[in-house]
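Q: Give me the 3D complex with zinc ion.
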Amino acid sequence: MPKLKIIKYPNSLLQELSKEVIEIDTEVRSFIDDLVETMRGSICVGIAAPQVGRLQRIIAVDVTPKNPGHGELVLINPKITAESGKRKGREGCLSIPGFVANIKRSKKVTVSALDRDGNSVEIETRGFEAVALQHEIDHLDGILFLDRITDMKRDLLKRKIEEI
Ligand SMILES: [Zn+2]
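A: Here is the predicted complex, encoded as structure tokens.
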């Protein structure tokens, strides 16, 4: 299966709003396979469709490498329906290689979505997996982790990234 090309910041596609998936047909399923393959081939715990240039609401998350005991999640049209608690943790992003920052997120989230067969699923999770889900769902709304840090730090980081 082909590995897809990761789009890097400051490509403007990363700041667009992704569209809902209307029909999960064979083309969408085959894209999902490629997306998961791309995640597996990278050092990351999640990926969102816009990161490979496709503005559709599809994410894949698997935190097993960093936090054993979870499995692969492929979520279509994911929505956070409940969240609670706060935690701060280091995050990085495939689209912004070489940069990490401490980001404040909800500790616990409930996400409703469709799985790759079109079944409704509800995921309730906490900790690292909850953070990964929030990070990937942000991508679908054109939000990067850089947008969630304080203004001053963000400006510094963005300037450094643009210099590279
Ligand atoms: Zn990311």
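A quick observation: The radius of gyration is 15 Å.
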